[in-house]
Amino acid sequence: MILKKHIATHVGTIPRSGIRDFFEIVQSMKEVISLGIGEPDFDTPWHIREAAIYSLERGHTGYTSNLGLPELRQHISEYVARHFSVSYDPKSEIMVTVGVSEGIDLALRALINPGDEVLYHEPCYVSYSPSILLSHGIPVAIATRAEDNFTLTAEELEKKISPASKVLMLNFPCNPTGATQTRGELEKIARLCVEHDLVVLTDEIYSELTYDGAKHVSIASLPGMRERTVFLHGFSKAFAMTGFRIGYTCAPAILTEAMMKVHQYAILCANTTAQDAAIEALLNGAREVDSMRKEYELRRNFIVRSFNDLGLDCFKPLGAFYVFPKISSTGLTSREFSLGLLEKKQVACVPGPAFGPSGEGFIRCSYATGMEQIKIAMERIAEFVEETRR
Ligand code: PLP
Predict the structure, then answer these.
(1) Among the atoms of ligand 1, which is closest to the Cα of residue 235?
(2) Residue 37 has what pLDDT?
(3) What is the pLDDT of residues 246-267, one digit of tens each?
(4) Pocket residue to mutate for ligand 1, from 39, 175, 233, most atoms within 8 A of Cβ
(5) Whose C-alpha in 16, 54, 72, 350 is 20 to 30 A from the C-alpha of 377?
(6) Would strands 117-122 and 165-170 be described as parallel, antiparallel, or unpaired?
């Protein structure tokens, strides 16, 4: 049997993630320092893990409501109101999901008819374009530039809007660039969304991780936006809970109901133990979030300075835990640079085009790695750059 011809065309034609391919090479090598992983190096705070253990001890081992534990939704509602200045009804407007990953998929599947266009800024998180294709939408990338600090400008967005545009996906602070948007920039984008009747999916998974006193603003909180926005957030990054697989969507009831139908039949509910742990994170996790954030900020300062000292332009991002230095002055492509660095110096970083074609000429380095490792990695990168330039 030739199974290949049975694979659905829209699945068969999607490329595998560039990050995964690269990390298969990394895993086959010894002694590699990885600046490639988009995952906190901190363990989940102990009291959160204890809450998970206690949940099992109490025998919380059944399904929860499709939308998630009512108590968790109540705490999410309070957390979102406090941090993002927008209120959602925990009974009908909040749904607990298997990470933000599931939230993205649900929102797209609930909204997209075949042929609808979905706009997103690029370089962007690896799942955006494939998720749009999997929901039979048409991905429309808007390239952001280092000269604009990788922000999305209303002017560039407007150029890409067509009669088929239905959804705009935003991710600030951004993976892979660390870019953030000011309130003023978001207001201009919000006006365009209202004018062109776009629904916004805003992935704010890195919102707690901002630096230099930058204040995160959610587009959902701007005038006219709550009613047309799906706010996506989760526990993976700020609370160092990637393996718990817990996220959530906040959206008007009619949209939540549509997403819930997809979730109900595909997933049923998010993991119960992880939901109990998430309650503890929201109730008592703020101190650890802040201390991790401070540590990331120190690392960011060091890594940005080191790249610029090497003559590789690196914009100082105000959020997330990535830097996106420009390496084109070495004369190498992103892939040549990353592979050369890995083979010659055993340092792993991700080639920029893994995040879309506009990432060419850049690499992504994560600073969710201990400072000592980062220091050694930067010494090795300096050697590599010097040898390349010789
Ligand atoms: N969105 C962005 C921008 C990310 O960087 C990631 C993970 O790296 C995710 C979503 C996935 O998050 P989760 O672990 O909540 O599924």
Answers:
(1) 15
(2) 86
(3) 999 999 999 999 999 999 999 9
(4) 175
(5) 16
(6) parallel
Helix axes 334-345, 371-389, angle to 10 degrees: 110
- Secondary structure class of 84 (helix, strand, coil): helix
* Whole-number Å distance between alpha carbons of 229 and 170: 10
Whether the CB-CB separation of 30 and 239 falls below 8 Å is answered with no
Residue 162 phi, psi (nearest 5): -130, 175
Atom from ligand 1 closest to the CA of residue 234: 15
Residue entry with tokens 């549509």: 258
Q: Which residues of the chain have pLDDT under 50?
A: none
Q: How far apart are CA 48 and CA 41, in angstroms?
A: 16
Q: Which atom of ligand 1 is nearest to the CA of 246?
A: 15
**Whole-number Å distance between alpha carbons of 102 and 186:** 25
Q: What is the pairing mode between strands 199-203 and 247-250?
A: unpaired
Q: List the chain domain ranges.
A: 3-44+287-389, 61-285
pLDDT score recorded for residue 390: 82
Give the pLDDT score at 30.
Answer: 81
Q: List beta partners, residue 5.
A: none
Residue 15: the pLDDT is 85
Q: What is the pLDDT of residue 31?
A: 86
> Is the CB of residue 37 below 6 angstroms from any atom belonging to ligand 1?
no
pLDDT at 221: 98
Per the CATH hierarchy, to which homologous superfamily does domain 3-44+287-389 belong? Aspartate Aminotransferase, domain 1 (3.90.1150.10)
pTM value is 0.96
Instruction: Please indicate whether residue 239, judged by its CB atom, sits closer than 6 Å to ligand 1.
Output: no
Q: Which atom of ligand 1 is nearest to the CA of 206?
A: 3
Q: Using CA positions, which residue lies closest to atom 5 of ligand 1?
A: 175
Is 125 near ligand 1, meaning CB less than 6 Å away?
yes
| Ligand 1 atom nearest to CA at 320 | 5
* Cβ proximity of 165 and 197 under 8 Å: no
Going by CA atoms, what residue is nearest to atom 7 of ligand 1?
Answer: 38
Task: Judge if the beta carbon of residue 205 lies within 6 A of ligand 1.
Answer: yes
- Say how many Å lie between the CA of residue 175 and the centre of ligand 1: 9
Pick the CATH number of 61-285 from 3.40.640.10, 3.50.50.60, 3.40.50.620, 3.90.550.10: 3.40.640.10
User: How far apart are alpha carbons 248 and 274 in whole angstroms?
Assistant: 12
